Amino acid sequence: MERRRPALRLRWGLALAAACVVGVAAIQLAKSDAPAVGGRTAVPHQPVAAAVLEKAALVATRTRTVTPQPSQWFYEKLSQHMIGGTLPTSETWHRLDGRKMAVRSAKDDKLKITDAEKGPTHPGKTLEELQALPADPDALLEHFRTMDRNLTPLSICEPNCPAGTEQDVKAWGAIGWYMSHGALVPPDKAAAMYRALAKIPNVKIEESTADGDGRAGIGVVLDLGEAGRGIYILDAGDYHYLGLKVVDGEGTSAMSVLNSGIVDEPGQVP
């Protein structure tokens, strides 16, 4: 599992004209009962998930953003609640040209600026990847299913996923990885991700749930039965990504984005 370091702060505003299109999406996809775990050819889409995620996509398309500059920094405040215990909340800044990073110490609240860590990805690289992604949800889903690497904030079932679900789990994880980068996600790509989620079998909606820090939201659930459940928590008002929970036989793990955005220098917050 790759780890990310996680303004224009991206808070997607409400879409007042969503109801009509959402209704059409629900009618078109309301063809049968909820799916069972296993291969994707015989499993229909869930109409409730399709309707909710279509509304989220419409909100995303109406969001106005400004493209971040290489000299700016991507800020993220992250919490992690693992089965073995809660980790200290982290605050990081990454310069989008990949040259510098900064960390605020949870122990003494001091800011430390260093050269960026060497690795296969950083927020600036992630922004380039996001801009290059297909905006068509079917093409995007196929791209994620056939990637040569796994991207996920938290693993649900790897390497023991139910037979026939492996590519769907890979796509699910990649969507969450990119959505967690909030302000970096272009509106058309955010909309495509929501619509792609609606096309993944075994995806359901929990109308009332909470992230690992108790913030209420809408749950978008990938239900793999005994293998585990992954839950993306979206804000109930504007559908922006709050975090992820994974529930399996060992318990519940959670990762939450408490704040994120684009700032002009390390130490600033959106």
Q: Can you tell me about this structure?
A:
The chain is an alpha+beta fold and 270 residues long. The protein is 27% helix and 27% strand. The protein has 6 helices and 9 strands, in the order ααββββααααβββββ. A 9-stranded antiparallel beta sheet has the order 4-3-2-1-9-8-7-6-5. Helix 4 (137-145) crosses helix 6. The longest helix has 15 residues, at 47-61. The chain starts with 17 loop residues before the first helix and ends in a 7-residue tail after the last strand. Mean pLDDT is 84; it is low at 1-47.
Beta-strand share of residues: 25-35%
Please identify the structural class as seen in this structure.
alpha+beta
Radius of gyration: 18 Å
Quaternary state of this entry equals single chain
SSE diagram, text form:
Elements: H1 18-29, H2 47-61, E1 73-82, E2 85-95, E3 100-104, E4 111-115, H3 123-132, H4 137-145, H5 166-179, H6 187-198, E5 203-210, E6 216-223, E7 229-234, E8 241-248, E9 251-263
Antiparallel strand pairs: 1-2, 1-9, 2-3, 3-4, 5-6, 6-7, 7-8, 8-9
Helix pairs in contact: 1-2, 2-6, 4-5, 4-6
Defining traits:
27% strand; 270 residues; nine-stranded antiparallel beta sheet; 6 helices; disordered N terminus; globular
Short description:
By secondary structure, this protein is of the alpha+beta class. It contains 6 helices and 9 strands; from the N terminus they run H-H-E-E-E-E-H-H-H-H-E-E-E-E-E. A hairpin with a 6-residue loop joins strand 3 and strand 4.
